[in-house]
Design a protein that fits this description.
436 residues; alpha/beta; single chain; four-stranded antiparallel beta sheet
Length: 436
Amino acid sequence: MNKDQIRGKIRELVVEYYKEAFKPADFIPGETLVNYAGRMFDEKELTNLVDSSLDFWLTSGRFSQDFEMALSDYLDVSDVILTNSGSSANLVAMSTLTSEKLGDKALKPGDEVITVAAGFPATVAPIIQNGLIPVFVDVEIGTYNVIIDEVRKALSDKTRAIFIAHTLGNPIDLGAITKIVEENDLWLIEDNCDALGSTYDGQLTGTFGHLATLSFYPAHHITTGEGGAVVTNDELLAKIARSFRDWGRDCYCAGGENDTCGKRFTQKYGELPLGYDHKYVYSHIGYNLKMTDMQAAIGASQMDKIDSFTAKRKSNFKFLYEGLKQFEDKLILPRATENSDPSWFVFILSVKDDAVFTRDDLTKYLNGCRIETRNLFCGNILRQPAYLNIKHRTVSDLENTDFAMNNTFFIGLYPGMTEEKMIYIIESFKKFFEEK
């Protein structure tokens, strides 16, 4: 056999291996772990992954191009810049807005960025790492998204940007936020890591801001294992973002390419000699945060499933909501933002203050039933050890954020969640309340 025939045979064997190695297991209530999230894949991801390994193209390559193009088409945006994680995507996006190439619009140390304290550290850390000042606002209980009136109160003559996540797939009030951004000439970064497939007013989230970010961690809507992306419709921002992702270099040639611009040895940069090799000119203090082609090979296949994944998340949310609605006297159920249609990341709940049990009582019971739970990330980030002494500003006492820190948790609804598992979840809640 020649190499193409051998590759074809390998692919056939991979399909056979998948069918044998990843057979669905029977669900045994109380014994089988009910995950809050998990990777969803079939033989196509596995064959793509093996196919890419046979290329032995270890950095960005043909699968990366396919994945970027599929994401670009899905979101209807001009540029998708793949990264090695969603956290890296957030760092690249925030750093992009500090580039001198933006002139007077560039963010400078001491400028303020509005965000929330009830979130994930990866949204806040890049603000601090770029010498900017996070201004924390409170969230609504139910949507767990930013309170718009607090955003308005947070505005000052130092405010230059808003960087907020769509909490657990539930879109922020983008109508109000984009109006504030336009009226005050601010930058907007959407942390869309938990919300791929969600819409606001019929438009996909991640397409409203100047920049947006995605995460492809196994728990998220699609996965590449580790991985993320920066999304934009702005050509200049895309060029800057690629520079920060690729060591800060000024050259935009793809890996393995040379002299795409035709000016590689003819230009003058900084205090370098005239004609210095453009491939080694650095216009930003950047990083190497690229995705590998093997990761992208998985992502390219996942894009074929995104619509079915989204539909399943929505139907699972509806099933759990209807099943848990009977406990509204004890629990605060999630509420979608007005004008939105979330592709929910998880099912979020809060224990009411007047309940005869605590959040921890309930989550310990559920975990004892082999039902995974998670708190709302870091709770109030200002109470986390690493953030106790950061320079920041708040416009309220963050009362709801503290409530979420003490009372809020979530359970799973990812596409691998079967009806059998969800019935078990609902029955477990019922047994806990009967015992109380």
